């Protein structure tokens, strides 16, 4: 690993150009002709992306960054912190270490953490960075993680895997067998080395499809950050055959919005009604979970329609999502639209509605923005309706 990028003058230059236009900087003359200009620009761009996502890395001195794509794909510190809350014990091996953000937080809970990375250069960079971050209980092993797993021959408290899609899988339905490593194929091997396996996948993976490929799934964590689903975490325990628990988490600033339920609990029956005083829209993690009947049951809310996934009540209650005060409700037809919304400004959301937001705006000349929120949806009687609301939270 070439450490010339850590030259104090180069580091000062990188830090003084954080967040500046890379395309404009690229046109400048390289002030350090002995160092590849592209490499310096990459450090600036990658560190700029790390500012909010990886604040501990950003403020630490002498950190070396991989490509900006690696920074974009790595876990954020906030989601890594959540993952660390799942594990316990004395030892964990990460078979797909990457930039090592997850391992940094695992090491705050686990005494012995092993970071495996097949890319030798990235492994060396991560080892260097862990030294700068004062994380002495993480050991880095370059090379094939399966070889490392067999060589160490240890019974681990946890195995962690973040499989990546193979290049030849683009355009296909997202399946775990199309990823590297092939988790379904290696699952028995993993359970020979640990009784607990934690798998991170992209939100694109369908929950039903994932369950069809895996076994011994105890809990699926759906993790959103500021209402954007970032990852699914599959918690597997050897010889577990019970119900699958779904845990949705939306990390909002320093708070966690959580909602838990048992998958395929047929005892849950929702209630339905026409719009009442308040409207509730679940956060993105709940939307990904599919637990729409469970929301109605747990919070004692009425659904507007089986497929609308919007809820209503006469009394205001705390809720993991957006809450609105319904100011008006009317059928979706030309006279009503002309009277209430034509040539106005509003934020538009469609749920279980045939027209798109774009077509609604164009047809009725509705500008975007403002303090009015309009929901175009379908009620329990299968009538197309419009709800005009103000946002509470």
Written description of the protein model:
By secondary structure, this protein is of the alpha/beta class. It has three domains: 4-66, no CATH class; 74-262, Rossmann fold (3-Layer(aba) Sandwich), CATH 3.40.50.150; 271-391. Helices cover 32% and strands 27% of the residues. The protein is built from 15 helices and 19 strands. It has helices at residues 8-16, 22-26, 37-53, 55-59, 68-73, 77-84, 101-106, 120-132, 145-152, 183-193, 207-213, 284-289, 292-299, 334-340, 357-364; strands at 91-94, 112-117, 138-142, 158-161, 164-165, 179-180, 196-201, 217-225, 228-237, 245-252, 255-262, 271-272, 278-282, 302-303, 311-313, 321-331, 347-350, 373-378, 384-391. The strands form three sheets. Strands 3-2-1-4-7-9-8-10-11 form a nine-stranded mixed beta sheet, sandwiched between helices. The protein has an eight-stranded mixed beta sheet with strand order 12-14-15-13-16-19-18-17. Strands 5-6 form a two-stranded antiparallel ribbon. Strand 10 and strand 11 (255-262) form a beta hairpin. 36% of the residues are buried.
Question: Which helices and strands, and how do they pair?
Answer:
Blueprint: H1 8-16, H2 22-26, H3 37-53, H4 55-59, H5 68-73, H6 77-84, E1 91-94, H7 101-106, E2 112-117, H8 120-132, E3 138-142, H9 145-152, E4 158-161, E5 164-165, E6 179-180, H10 183-193, E7 196-201, H11 207-213, E8 217-225, E9 228-237, E10 245-252, E11 255-262, E12 271-272, E13 278-282, H12 284-289, H13 292-299, E14 302-303, E15 311-313, E16 321-331, H14 334-340, E17 347-350, H15 357-364, E18 373-378, E19 384-391
Parallel strand pairs: 1-2, 1-4, 2-3, 4-7, 8-10, 12-14, 17-18
Antiparallel strand pairs: 5-6, 7-9, 8-9, 10-11, 13-15, 13-16, 14-15, 16-19, 18-19
């Amino acid at each position: 690993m070439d450490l010339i990028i850590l030259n104090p003058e180069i580091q000062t230059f990188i830090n003084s150009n954080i967040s500046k236009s890379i395309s404009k900087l690229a046109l400048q003359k390289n002030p350090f002709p002995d160092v590849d200009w592209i490499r310096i620009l990459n450090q600036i761009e990658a560190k700029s992306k790390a500012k909010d996502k990886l604040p501990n890395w950003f403020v630490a001195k002498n950190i070396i960054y991989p490509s900006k794509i690696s920074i974009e794909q790595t876990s954020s510190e906030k989601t890594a912190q959540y993952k660390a809350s799942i594990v316990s014990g004395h030892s964990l091996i990460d078979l797909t270490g990457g930039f090592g953000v997850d391992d940094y937080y695992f090491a705050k809970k686990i005494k012995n953490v092993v970071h495996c990375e097949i890319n030798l250069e990235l492994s060396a960079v991560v080892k260097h960075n862990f030294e700068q971050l004062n994380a002495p209980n993480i050991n880095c092993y370059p090379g094939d993680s399966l070889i490392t797993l067999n060589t160490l021959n240890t019974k681990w408290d946890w195995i962690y895997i973040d499989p990546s899609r193979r290049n030849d899988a683009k355009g296909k339905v997202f399946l775990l067998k199309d990823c590297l490593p092939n988790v379904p194929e290696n699952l028995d091997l993993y359970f020979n080395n640990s009784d607990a396996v934690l798998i991170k996948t992209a939100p694109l993976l369908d929950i039903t499809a994932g369950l069809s490929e895996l076994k011994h799934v105890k809990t699926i964590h759906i993790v959103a950050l500021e209402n954007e689903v970032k990852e699914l975490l599959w918690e597997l325990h050897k010889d577990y055959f019970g119900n699958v628990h779904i845990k949705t988490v939306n990390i909002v600033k320093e708070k966690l919005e959580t909602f838990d339920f048992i998958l395929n609990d047929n005892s849950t029956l929702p209630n339905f009604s026409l719009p009442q005083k308040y409207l509730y829209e679940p956060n993105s993690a709940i939307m990904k979970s599919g637990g729409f009947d469970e929301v109605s049951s747990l919070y004692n809310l009425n659904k507007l329609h089986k497929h609308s996934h919007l809820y209503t009540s006469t009394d205001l209650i705390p809720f993991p999502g957006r809450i609105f005060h319904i100011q008006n409700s009317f059928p979706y037809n030309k006279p009503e639209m002309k009277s209430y919304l034509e040539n106005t400004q509003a934020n538009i959301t469609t749920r279980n509605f045939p027209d798109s937001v774009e077509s609604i705006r164009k047809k009725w000349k509705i500008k975007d923005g403002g303090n009015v929120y309009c929901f175009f949806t379908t009620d329990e009687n299968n009538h197309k309706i419009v709800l005009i609301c103000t946002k509470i939270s």
